[in-house]
Amino acid sequence: MKQPTxxxxxxxxxLSTSTHLNAAPSDKPVALTTVAIRVHHMAKxxxxxxxxxxxxxREVDTSGLRSQFGEVGGITLKLVPLRRSAxxxxxxxxxxxFEVDDVEAVIAIAIRHGGRQxxxxxxxxxxxxGSVRDPDxxxxxxYSRTDSSTTTE
Length: 153
Prior knowledge:
- This protein is an alpha+beta fold and 153 residues long.
- It has a single domain (5-145), classed as 2,3-Dihydroxybiphenyl 1,2-Dioxygenase, domain 1 (Roll).
- Helix content is 25%, strand content 39%.
- Strands 2-3-4-1-5-8-7-6 form an 8-stranded mixed sheet, with helices on one face.
- A hairpin with a 2-residue loop joins strand 3 and strand 4.
- It is globular.
């Protein structure tokens, strides 16, 4: 199976800087788990990633948008349709997702360095999810689990 160079480089970057993303020292490393791409031509994008990288996609409702999620090289690739171009003026259209020890601590670090929290923190069973904008305005999804013995989905 071919590995997408961009995703591989992003994963290597995260591994090399993982101590900066954890709010406190931990035995559990930070994991890059998702990359979201906003798309104009969903069918063509799904076909391209399936053929080029052997991804297998499934439809997922993301806040009313019919998105496609697929696995590529151990990372979930989220293809999310654009609504209207005016909705995204001045906003990046790609999004990384990290599993960390402490969602609230990562949000605090983002704010301390000029970022901001997006929406509220949600809890679903043992999974905690939050979103932040980094200092350049890129959106990051931040996940953690209340039970550290549970593995990443």
